[in-house]
Automatic annotation (TrEMBL):
The keyword Cytoplasm does not apply. SUPFAM superfamilies: FMN-binding split barrel (SSF50475), GAF domain-like (SSF55781). InterPro entries: GAF, GAF-like_dom_sf, Pyridox_Oxase_N, Split_barrel_FMN-bd. This is Histidine kinase. Residues 159-320 form the GAF domain. The keyword Lipoprotein does not apply. PANTHER family: 5'-PHOSPHATE OXIDASE PUTATIVE DOMAIN-CONTAINING PROTEIN-RELATED. It comes from the Bacteria. Keywords: Kinase, Transferase.
Length: 441
């Protein structure tokens, strides 16, 4: 017996499928399909793009026949299906809309392929069409074994920083994925910020993506994996996001997003926790069809473990052990550090460093250091500090501190944050600083 799970490779859209329908009077009609979406072991979704003969037939007679081809072996399968209903919003619709955009860009039909709805069908029967099969290609890596090894390593991580570094290292070592990043949902729930990345010329730590923007934003908004196998202009981030060209008072405040300029394949997977969405695990490749169903399944499992470990490690931040603290040279000329209260953005000289919650935290640490000579701080006092106005739960405090720590490593060599104990850390300032509070009317 042929199962739908066994032929998911036929649903990638490499070879167009054929859909046969029948009008109410018995007149048959055959059309080509640009996309089939695997839903579960008993259901598929077909793209509804035009109100044509096929659409009229399905509404009049819900039974249809679908023929698909395995792109590796050329084996054909015939599916008996029954139309159930059409979805015009939600996770299934958005996932298919993103994939269709990639297919349209790939074949030069961006203005023609437009998803109107996702037609859900129940698969009643599958039969193999007689014919000669090509030899199977050489097997790649074992994704199940790679997933197991990755999950085992994540389970022994002792802090959030280690967890983020480990998952990106394993994506490269175990899955052969060279470009990946982790983004966390911010406190407002309206955007995500990059907290770790691998495989890019610059880390992009602190760069932001709005909910609903591109593959990452849609996956976060709909809480569903989004996978694209061909380059698409509709779901790319554009040169402005990659170059960080957005400007406001005080200079550029946008950290360039570290994505590929011309990704051919993308996969964004939600990282869930008990409290909801924690963030997104995102991978991409310059190759077409780099990520298939099995890759999606594997990374969904990895993201689930990542979310579980984030829950387990929701405790005071653990960072690298401190070296002996080098003191600032008192005779050196002070470096200006400016703070813009409107969005809590911080500039080192004329260079943008950080904004938002991480910016507010950094400014508080600097003020306490300059005005009171403090160097040692605790997570607890940050959570309780009235001037920071953190959310009651402050669930993302650890992630924000890691973001700040890594951003300082990237952009400010004379200030660092180092661990001194559980839930305690030290601000290390190696050069005199001159703090400037900038008021903009």
């Amino acid at each position: 017996m042929v199962t739908l799970d066994a032929i998911r490779n036929c649903l990638e859209g490499v070879i167009p499928a054929t859909l046969a329908t029948c009008a109410a009077d018995g007149t048959p009609n055959v059309s080509l399909l640009s996309q089939i979406n695997y839903v579960d072991g008993a259901h598929i979704a077909l793209s509804y793009q035009f109100f044509n003969k096929t659409r009229r037939n399905i509404l009049a007679n819900p039974h249809a026949a679908l023929e698909v081809v395995d792109p590796d072996t050329a084996v054909q399968y015939r599916l008996a299906v029954r139309y159930l209903h059409t979805e015009t919003s939600g996770p299934l619709f958005e996932s298919m809309k993103a994939r269709l955009s990639g297919i349209a860009s790939h074949v030069g039909m961006q203005g023609v392929f437009r998803l109107l709805g996702a037609d859900l069908y129940r698969v009643l029967e599958i039969e193999r069409v007689p014919g000669v099969a090509l030899p199977l290609p050489e097997p790649g890596g074992n994704l199940l074994s790679a997933t197991r090894r990755t999950v085992e390593r994540l389970m022994v991580c002792s802090d959030l920083s280690c967890l983020l570094d480990q998952v990106l290292a394993d994506l490269e070592a175990e899955f052969g994925i060279d470009h990946a990043m982790v983004l966390m949902l911010d406190e407002t729930g309206g955007s995500l910020y990059t907290v770790a990345s691998r495989g890019y010329p610059s880390s992009g730590v602190g760069s932001e993506i709005a909910l609903g923007d591109g593959v990452i934003g849609v996956a976060a908004r709909e809480r569903t994996p989004i996978r694209i196998s061909h380059m698409t202009s509709e779901y790319s981030y554009g040169l402005a996001a990659l170059d960080g060209t957005g400007r406001t008072d005080g200079g550029a405040r946008e950290i360039p997003f570290p994505g590929l300029r011309e990704p051919r394949s993308q996969l964004a997977v939600p990282i869930g926790t008990v409290g909801g969405l924690a963030g997104i695990l995102f991978v991409e490749s310059p190759r077409d069809l780099r990520f298939r169903h099995d890759d999606e399944d594997a990374l969904v499992t990895v993201a689930a473990q990542l979310g579980t470990m984030m829950e387990v490690l929701r405790r005071p931040i653990q960072m690298a052990e401190p070296a002996a603290e080098p003191l600032a040279t008192p005779d050196a000329e002070a470096i200006a550090i400016s703070h813009y209260g409107r969005d809590d953005s911080v500039f080192i000289g004329h260079d943008y460093l950080i904004k938002g919650v991480a910016g507010a935290i950094f400014w508080k640490l600097l003020r306490d250091h300059v005005h009171h000579g403090r160097t040692d701080f605790s997570n607890r006092e940050l959570r309780m500090a009235p001037d920071l106005k953190l959310p009651d739960a402050a669930e993302n405090l650890e992630a924000r501190l890691i973001l700040l720590q890594r951003r300082l490593v990237d952009r400010c060599g004379f200030i660092g944050i180092e661990k001194t104990g559980r839930g305690r850390f030290r601000l290390v300032v190696r050069h005199p600083v001159d703090l400037k509070e900038v008021q903009i009317s």
